[in-house]
Amino acid sequence: MSDERPTLTRDEVAHLAQLARLAVTEEELDLFAGQLDVILGAVARIGDVAAADIPPTSHAVPLQNVFRADEVRPSLPREDILAGAPAVEDFRFRVPQILGEEE
Amino acid sequence: MTVRDDVQLDLSYDGVVRRYAPVIGLETHVELGTVSKMFCGCSTEFGAEPNTHTCPVCLGLPGALPVVNAKAIEYTIRIGLALNCSIAEWCRFARKNYFYPDMPKNFQISQYDEPLCVDGHLDVVVEGQTYRVGIERVHMEEDTGKNTHVGGATGRIHGAEYSLVDFNRAGIPLIEIVTKPVEGTGPLAPEVAKAYVTELRDILRSLGVSDVKMEQGSLRCDVNTSLSPIGVSEWGTRTETKNVNSLRSVERAVRSEIIRQAAILDRGGRIKQETRHFQETTGETRSGRSKEEATDYRYFPEPDLVPVAPARDWVADIRASLPELPAARRARLRSELGLSTEELQQMVNAGVVEAVGETVQAGATAAEARNWWMGYLAEQANSREVEPTSLPITPAQVARVILLVADGKLSTALARQAVDGVLQTGKDVDAIVAERGLAVVSDTSALTRAADEAIADNPDVADKVRGGKVAAVGALVGAVMKATRGQADAPAVRQILLQQLGVSE
């Protein structure tokens, strides 16, 4: 089974970096592609124990329809919310320039 | 591929649609009218101080777990049923991963390959022709936070130095209604797109699941457009136009995108698959980011939420509770108000069916209600570039004005002044009438005095009338109306003038 596991290519890492607007050097691409591939390989081992009689699931517990009523509960105080932000302006989270969205 | 600059083709809309057949698709986002958010108990109230409606769940803090709002599921099923969809027996949420700072979790909880409602349709009528718009899916997701871009000239991302994020909106239940590609509309594609969004808005309003205010963003529309040369069955590359924030803009966006794409194709160019932004001021679209592929979002099942499997008897109960939908209501109003199909269609196009119906319900006659909404109020709406129903006047207020005219307390001119007053101040009709002293002058002696003055001031006209040209009296009526600032009843004035001139009809 292990030879069927997905591999992560250098090009895919470059594409992900582009999506995240991360500047990644050529050396880093080699490094990350190798490291991420090892991680993927470790996770893919789960596939080794998958059997035809076990349906895929996203949960370990056999539950469905867990709902809450549509009722307003108190929000957190704004001071607490903003206390953990790296930068704040006008009670809003200040984030760096957004790149490559609009020409 | 050669790019030809020498070709001079007709780039007017009419010219373009003779050469190309448009295919459109619409993705409509609707904020549901629940009082709390999709996965937490924070309030959904519009217009609150920034970041006052947030908590560990909608801020994506470590360890916080989302729990689904049952009302949001119910509302989505209501919408699905009203759009003739099948309701899935089992569905689940997925994470949509992307890098953009409007969701603190770095992903949006959405639905991907397992939506709650699928495969429906909605019929719209344009120029007497019915078009069936297929509904691909109705799925649930959460709204994102609101970014404000700082620096740069226009508040756009481009040129901004940084952005500020308010997460009040993040996590508000949002549904996305996706149509199948709509073909075969020909030149009417912009009108069909507008008619679809209008009908959808009216359905959502009648279902009571959203306040559907486009100007506040609770109903938002993305329009996909592609062109293929007439006679070619293969579809062209599509673009997705965002930022379409009014019904009028839906029509304008499709129209301008059709013209833009045709100009490129005419020169042998290629359409880039991308997101474009509609510009309200110019009516044109501007290039945005290149469209990300679905695989770029790396969807996977949301492990923090368990599947949703709506019980069949619950779905049946919801179906039984659906109100009369706009199409059925229109058919009923048509027979109740005694309208022709064409008259009704004009009202639909003007977006005033509900308003007329409610005005009649408030006591006005059908003919007068229709006159006001199709006439003076439509003009006022047009000059303000809003829909008639967005004017700050209620059907009850319009009915009151109509009643005052019917009782002879206001002339048509005065009634318009009363309406203007309501539109300007938001006060009630009777308050405006009292405040501005709007009342028909029925004091005969005052009118007679005004009539005598008009006759004295216009001896030539008076002679004509005396000489038998009774129609000429109109000029004198006008003079009296002017002198009494429109507060007289024109037929009564005419009567008095003829009497003073010694002429009988």
Entry summary:
With 103 residues, chain A is mainly alpha-helical.
Helices and strands in order, then pairings?
The complex is a heterodimer of chains A (103) and B (505).
Chain A: H1 10-19, H2 26-44, H3 46-49, E1 67-68, H4 78-83, E2 88-89, E3 92-96
Antiparallel strand pairs in A: 2-3
Helix pairs in contact in A: 1-2
Chain B: H1 13-19, E1 20-31, E2 68-69, H2 70-82, E3 86-87, E4 94-97, E5 107-110, E6 117-126, E7 129-142, E8 146-150, E9 162-166, E10 173-179, H3 189-207, E11 219-229, E12 239-244, H4 247-266, E13 274-278, E14 285-290, E15 300-301, H5 312-320, H6 326-337, H7 341-350, H8 353-361, H9 366-374, H10 376-384, H11 395-406, H12 412-425, H13 429-435, H14 444-457, H15 459-466, H16 473-483, H17 490-501
Parallel strand pairs in B: 12-13
Antiparallel strand pairs in B: 1-10, 1-11, 3-6, 4-5, 4-15, 6-7, 7-10, 8-9, 11-12, 13-14
Polypeptide structure, described:
The complex is a heterodimer of chains A (103) and B (505). Chain A is mainly α and 103 residues long. In chain A, α1 crosses α2. The termini of chain A are far apart. The longest helix of chain A is centred in the middle third of the chain and has 19 residues. Chain A has a two-stranded antiparallel sheet. Chain A is 38% helix and 9% strand. In chain B, the strands form 3 sheets. Chain B has a 9-stranded mixed β-sheet with strand order 3-6-7-10-1-11-12-13-14. In chain B, strands 5-4-15 form a 3-stranded antiparallel β-sheet, with no helix packed on it. Chain B has a two-stranded antiparallel ribbon with strand order 8-9. The radius of gyration of chain B is 29 Å and the shape is elongated. In chain B, a hairpin with a 6-residue loop joins β13 and β14. Chain B has 505 residues and is an alpha+beta fold. At the A-B interface, β1, α4 and β3 of A face β2, α2, β8, β9 and β14 of B. β1 of chain A pairs parallel with β2 of chain B.
